[in-house]
Amino acid sequence: MQDFLELLRNVVPSLLQGAVITLQIAGVSLLLGGAIGLPLGIGRVYGPPWLQRVLGAYITLFQGTPLLIQLFLVYYGLPDLGLTLGRLTAAYITLGLNSGAYQAEYLRGALQSVSEGQMTAARAIGMSKAQAIRSIILPQALRLVLPAWSNEAIAMLKNTAVVFAIAILDMMGQAKALASDYFAPIPIYMIVAVFYIVLVGVAYLLLRQVERRVQIPGLTSEAE
Amino acid sequence: MTTEPILRIEDLYKSFGETQVLKGFSLTIQPQEVVVLVGPSGSGKSTLLRCINLLHPPTAGRVWLDAQEITAPGVDQDKVRQRIGMVFQDFNLFTHLTALGNVMIGLTKVRKMHKKEAHDLAMLELERVGLVDRADHYPAQLSGGQKQRVAIARALGMDPHIMLFDEPTSALDPELTGEVLEVMQQLAKEGMTMIVVSHEMGFARQVASRVVFMENGVVVEEGPPNQMFTQPKSERTRAFLRKITDLDDGGERQ
Amino acid sequence: MDFLQDLIATLSFILQGLWVTIGVTLLALTVGLVFGVAMAMLRVYGNRFLRQVATVYSVIVRAVPVIVIIFILYFVIARFVNLSPFLAGSLALGFASGAYQTEIFRGAFQAVPPGQMVAARAIGMSRLQAIQSIILPQAVRLALPAWGNEATLVLKDSTLVFVVGVPEIFRRAQQISARTLEPFMAFGAALLLYLILTMIATQILQWIERRYRLQM
């Protein structure tokens, strides 16, 4: 027990530093993924057929292959083509592109679940298609997509752990370094597991709060 | 004195793939007329309304609104739809907006009004349908009849020259149809030109200036309600009207 | 010609990892299936204590990155038995997948109409018999779409066992890229190979789904 407390004292500061990096990577990548996923999702539903196919191929590529290989291709592979990225930048870009594919699919589902009558009614009062998407369909779809988006945010927190493989000192990276420094892999990985549980738990509670706040009065979401 | 018709439909055709729904439909409507359109289901009534405001592009034929041919190439369809109000069977209120928001959004986004101005006008429209006290309610918090009245206010907000009603009461419980029909009757009194697809024969008798019976995508017979109900020329009209008025009266007698 | 030679060398080297990847995936999926079905049954039909055990397993494991689970289990297993990296890695991945499969099967069990259990008991089956021969066969079919999704996730997550030195596709790509010094080619080839693999897997899973779909 004494030993364990001693170990805890030694590893917690490093893990906290790692937590900052983990949160930073998750946050930036989620936003980047949102910036990619929003136009992609809209294009998938409302774009011309050729665009829908191109976007579909992008989504298949990123959903159909492991994150780890995507990360290594971006970080180690792109320099072969003359594009050298820093570790963190490579992490943001890979996770962002990957998350963009997922977020686009979630948004597509949400856009398609807004009833057709909403578009008809918007056009009937003289809105253009673009206006109708912007002021009527999208505000509803963004509310509908929130539960799926929350899942994506939590998946992202866990997905960031792969960046340790390109030697980033996120929580996982710190844990790996500490595990070999202290020759105590089991307790250290257990401790980092607890860190992840706390992060994921807090994120979950916060996102539930947001979901409740933007709920449309009188409507009960079908997911519940 | 001949007045300029507000709407003229000439030889309108509409097909979906192989299915022909409208097969040369023609009709002329004068200002302030209330035309009630009846006909068996599948006769093309809803399709006709959606062709008039160009939600469905007609396959052939021409439509004039206020002497402007709106089926001509190059016409700004969004502008045309602003002048044609439409009320749907299933309301189609914007789910994420309050009653007030539903009326306001067309004013701010399409008519480009300032918020304050739009708000005041929207409140006036809600007052017209008697729902000022429900302004802050969301669609999911309103009854069917209230929803439909908000939908009417939303359409009125665009200051339409003509209103199209696509079975406005058929999704409502019987006890809620009255409040909607009352609002429509009031509109007619104020001089609104209206085309109403409905089988509410009481409404047709009291409010319609003309009843049009259509079947298989064409007009079978039209005339003032009195004549249509008492001495229709066509056997088809007689049979159809008898069927729906029997149902109607049966309902009222109970 | 150097390029072509490198490409052939790269492809043939990485391809040797194909069966390892498939092996890890199938083993992990099977382990996960056993855990998943068992834990889901506990969550739905178990007593208070068993329900809690199953819930804790599913909630905790799903809140932790799979890579962390693999590290923990790998070292825990190594302390007790001497397993090959292939077995240890697959078991760890399966344990993680089991938590996700628990949720999938829990949903499926709960989606079987309650009348099925009542009817099974009414013809004299014990509770266990009813679960076994009436509820489970239906739940498995209901779970198929979500399970197919999980299967492709495990296929992709099987790259993570590289950390314990299992020579699957990704590990092989790493090795050959260190040798040829052409990482773009190595990881590009691995990526394409995976893309083909997941597409085939998706087709197979969809075929299974269609074949066993329940008409309800």
Describe the structure.
The complex is a heterotrimer of chains A (224), B (254) and C (216). Chain A contains 8 helices and no strands. With 224 residues, chain A is mostly helical. Chain A has one domain (2-214): Orthogonal Bundle (MetI-like fold). Chain A is flat, with a radius of gyration of 21 Å. Chain A starts with a helix and ends in an 11-residue tail after the last helix. The model of chain A has no long low-confidence stretch (mean pLDDT 93). With 254 residues, chain B is an alpha/beta fold. In chain B, strands 6-7-8-3-9-10 form a 6-stranded mixed β-sheet, with helices on both faces. In chain B, a hairpin with a 2-residue loop joins strand 4 (60-65) and strand 5 (68-69). Chain C is mainly α and 216 residues long. Chain C has a single domain, classed as MetI-like (MetI-like fold), CATH 1.10.3720. Helices cover 84% and strands 0% of the residues of chain C. Chain C has helices spanning 2-15, 18-45, 48-62, 66-80, 85-111, 114-122, 127-157, 169-180, 183-212. The model of chain C has no long low-confidence stretch (mean pLDDT 92). Chains in contact: A-B, A-C. Chains A and C meet through helix 3, helix 7 and helix 8 of A and helix 4, helix 7, helix 8 and helix 9 of C.
